[in-house]
């Protein structure tokens, strides 16, 4: 009996070591150089200003993913960063500079309006200058229009779009019969508008009994004091008996400041969020957020499974500072997909790599994603989590991993397979 248990333990340890080796690439100085010419990648993102923390979080994810690819050998990726300051004109200038610098793969995500402008600019550039065609890999810009009416052969999205994320949240809200009123608030640009529009539609279809007591859009990245908004939310939701909820797609400091203001105003309702699982939001709410803040994501640190745990521990080992704790599985899959496509195409020619990307099917640490050729929308599982305390003595529903050293993390309450999260598209793809 002891021998059999020992053998099982050794086998489990072997699986863990193998999984760790798959994702725990060494730091840049330890990675082996390749004789091949490095493939230049340009990250165009807001790295300064009020939403700069979100851009820096992206950069850490891309660095880690590239270290893993480079450590395997056979392909060397070279990441260069360009600060758009969150502005469309700055992003377009950065695009021109990146192309002149030799980049053929452009990555951006933290603004759907910027992404839309980049798609238009890249479409025109690729038509005008076929010898220097580029591809746009989008990791976070989730306005549904980008893979529907504005779909482009040169654009690939690796995040679930806003309607997909909202549908996942609604699967939880639909069953939460305590919620009787909802306040909708978002950032005043294409993505924020899309979130509110889809929230109205899905609430009407799935929970017509819920009263929408307020709807508001605010300037993105410019509000310093959300207390007036929070006081209005509290007053409006108090007019309806029962539990209330805020639905928001806010991200970065716009979410953190909103949540802080809600706590200061004494709002005790729930938050259904797209990005409430990090970047200061859990720490801002503290104990008041336990059981009250819901977030949807492509992956969360407390997703059950040994491979998921090994993946997360490897990231925390690479970036040990608590404030650097925001790992995106989709960004890791994006880089794995690009590496796979370049190697399959046998070149960095944008057209050849795009055709390989259309057929991409990639797995990392138990998470699988595939690219849908019809609209270039990545299809992957989604999860919904609720904020909880980190496990400790007497903590019945505690989670193993907290967020940013806050003592609070997210317990997974719903998992959707890729085919459950998938939605139809209206894309009319024009191919070269």
Automatic annotation (TrEMBL):
Which parts form a coiled-coil structure per UniProt? none
Q: Which Pfam families match?
A: Peripla_BP_6
The answer to whether UniProt assigns keyword Protein biosynthesis to this entry is no
Leucine-binding protein domain location is: 38-385
Q: Which residues form the signal peptide?
A: 1-21
Q: Which InterPro entries match?
A: BCAA_transport (IPR051010), Leu-bd (IPR028081), Peripla_BP_I (IPR028082)
Source domain of life is Bacteria
Keyword terms, alphabetized: Signal
The family assignment reads:
Belongs to the leucine-binding protein family.
Q: What is this protein called?
A: Putative transporter signal peptide protein
């Amino acid at each position: 009996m002891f021998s059999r248990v020992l053998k099982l333990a050794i086998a489990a340890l072997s699986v863990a070591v193998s999984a760790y080796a798959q994702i725990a690439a060494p730091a840049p100085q330890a990675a082996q150089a390749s004789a091949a010419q490095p493939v230049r990648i340009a990250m165009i993102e807001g790295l300064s200003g009020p939403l700069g923390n979100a851009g820096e979080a992206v950069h850490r994810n891309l660095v880690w993913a590239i270290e893993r690819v480079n450590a395997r050998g056979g392909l060397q990726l070279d990441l260069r960063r360009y600060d758009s300051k969150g502005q469309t004109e700055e992003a377009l200038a950065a695009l021109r500079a990146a192309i002149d610098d030799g980049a053929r793969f452009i990555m951006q995500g933290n603004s759907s309006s910027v992404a839309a402008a980049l798609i238009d600019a890249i479409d025109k550039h690729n038509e005008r200058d076929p010898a220097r065609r580029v591809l746009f890999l989008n990791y976070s810009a989730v306005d549904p229009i980008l893979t529907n009416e504005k779909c482009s052969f040169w654009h690939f999205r690796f995040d679930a779009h806003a309607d997909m994320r909202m549908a996942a949240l609604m699967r939880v809200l639909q069953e939460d019969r305590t919620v009787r009123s909802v306040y909708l608030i978002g950032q005043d640009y294409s993505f924020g508008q899309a979130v509110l529009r889809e929230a109205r539609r899905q609430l009407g279809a799935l929970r017509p009994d819920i009263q929408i007591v307020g709807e508001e859009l605010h300037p993105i990245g410019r509000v310093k004091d959300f207390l007036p908004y929070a006081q209005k939310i509290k007053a409006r939701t108090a007019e309806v008996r029962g539990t209330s909820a805020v639905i928001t797609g806010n991200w970065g400091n716009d979410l953190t400041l909103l949540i802080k203001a809600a706590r200061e105003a004494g709002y005790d309702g729930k938050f259904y969020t797209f990005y409430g699982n990090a970047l200061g939001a859990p720490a801002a709410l503290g104990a008041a957020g336990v059981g009250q803040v819901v977030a949807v994501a492509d992956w969360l640190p407390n997703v059950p499974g040994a491979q998921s745990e090994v993946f997360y521990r490897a990231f925390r080992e690479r970036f040990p500072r608590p404030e650097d704790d925001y790992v995106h599985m989709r960004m890791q899959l994006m880089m794995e997909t690009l590496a796979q496509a370049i190697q399959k195409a046998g070149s960095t020619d944008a057209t050849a790599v795009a055709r390989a990307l259309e057929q991409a099917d990639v797995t990392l640490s138990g998470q699988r994603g595939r690219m849908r050729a019809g609209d270039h929308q990545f299809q992957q599982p989604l999860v919904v989590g609720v904020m909880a305390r980190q496990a400790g003595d007497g903590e019945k529903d505690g989670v193993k991993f907290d967020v940013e050293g806050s003592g609070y993390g997210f317990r997974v309450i719903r998992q959707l397979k890729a085919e459950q999260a998938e939605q139809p598209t209206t894309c009319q793809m024009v191919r070269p």
